Amino acid sequence: MDVAVVGAGVLGLTCAVRLAEAGHRVKVTTAAAPADTTSAVAAALWYPYRAWPAESVTRWAARSRTVFAELAADCGTGVLLRAGRELLRSPAPHPWWAAAVPDLRRLTPEELPPGFVDGFGFTAPVIDMSRYLAWLLSRAGSLGVSIVVRRLSTVDDAEGDVVVNCTGLGSREFAGDQSLVPVRGQVVRLANPGLTEWLLDEDDPAGMTYVVPRHDDVVCGGTADVGADSGDPDRAVEAAILSRARALVPALVGAPVVSRGIGYRPTRPTVRVEVEDTARRPLVHCYGHGGAGVTLSWGCADDVVALLPDDQRTIG
Ligand SMILES: Cc1cc2nc3c(=O)[nH]c(=O)nc-3n(C[C@H](O)[C@H](O)[C@H](O)COP(=O)(O)OP(=O)(O)OC[C@H]3O[C@@H](n4cnc5c(N)ncnc54)[C@H](O)[C@@H]3O)c2cc1C
To answer: CA quadruple 44, 49, 51, 52: dihedral positive or negative?
Structure first.
């Protein structure tokens, strides 16, 4: 079939790759180049964050984790496998997505910095989006996928037997979905002083903190401003992020800032992966991945392929 994928963030490109691998002719149309999408700003640690429902998210995350682990064997993909710690300020049960992580373990008291009473350790994919989106593009190109930069006003503007909607937050207009809520996130990237371990402290009363070492830099975050869908990186917010990150990881003191970013997580009550039967042709939606679009990408793309005609089901 001729499949029109709309959107070239991590979901659009991953769906395009899987659809082309399944033998379809795929054309991607996108309002912005991949490097200018929300996906390019992602930290991007494998971690289910602000994405629901639990059962589907756990399944998509587990599937994606397996694929990322395979991709990590090829240094050209930008995918790394890194050990890390999630630190907690009060005791907590195992996370709801624990089934997706084979080596998840509770931290010992010796592994907890002062101020923390609990936590989990596990190996997670870290996806360096500055390299990975380029790799996805080249993988799609090698499968014959074409890419056109153009904003589509409506689904009717797309050409194909089937349309796959991967417009992320753009689905507020493109799919008329008013349940989508942007959650603004700011990051600052420092030169990597040699770190390999990621760290996450979601409960800091001053704001969540994460430190994600990639190849050459370390992504430090973060913020989660619900409802905010505009704004430039704020220097005061950046200073607060750096102060929290450096308190957690003193090796970052003195590491220079190399870049900064701001993005808008596309959140909704549930990730939408389903077919909408329009009069003209099937429309497969794949958006609303919140703070976990990278984490869920391969699992969702597999479901999109399965949802094309002959196997139309609702998932999510
Ligand atoms: C600060 C921050 C940190 C994050 N960290 C992580 C993390 O650690 N792990 C993780 O898994 N996720 C993380 N995320 C979340 C992740 O970035 C998103 O879930 C993901 O990028 C969503 O991908 P997407 O492809 O759906 O959307 P996008 O990347 O926004 O792509 C949407 C695409 O649709 C196109 N489009 C929109 N409207 C139209 C239209 N009308 N016509 C044509 N094209 C259109 C856009 O141009 C774009 O190409 C983070 C996000 C932020 C902001």
So the answer is: positive
Q: What is the pLDDT along the chain (316 residues), one digit of tens a residue?
A: 999 999 999 999 999 999 999 999 999 999 999 999 999 999 999 999 999 999 999 999 999 999 999 999 999 999 999 999 999 999 999 999 999 999 999 999 999 999 999 999 999 999 999 999 999 999 999 999 999 999 999 999 999 999 999 999 999 999 999 999 999 999 999 999 999 999 999 999 999 999 999 999 999 999 999 999 999 999 999 999 999 999 999 999 999 999 999 999 999 999 999 999 888 899 999 999 999 999 999 999 999 999 998 744 444 4
What's the helix, strand, coil split of the chain in %, to 5? 35, 30, 35
Taking the centre of ligand 1 as the mean of its atom positions, its distance from the CA of residue 137, in whole angstroms, is 15
Within 8 A by CB and 6+ apart from 155, the residues are 6, 163, 165, 174, 175, 278, 283
Quote the domain boundaries for residue 56: 2-315
Which residue's CA is the nearest one to ligand 1's atom 35?
7
Q: From the alpha carbon of 296, which atom of ligand 1 is closest?
A: 11
Residues with CB under 6 A from ligand 1: 6-12, 29-32, 37-39, 41-45, 47, 151-152, 166-170, 174, 185, 187, 221-222, 263, 265-266, 287, 289-295
**Ligand 1 centroid, distance to 37 Cα (angstroms):** 6
Q: How long a stretch of residues is the chain? A: 316
Residue 152's CATH number: 3.40.50.720
Given a contact cutoff of 8 angstroms between Cβ atoms, the answer to whether 289 and 165 are in contact is no
Per the confidence metrics, is the pTM higher than 0.90?
yes
Number of domains in the chain: 1
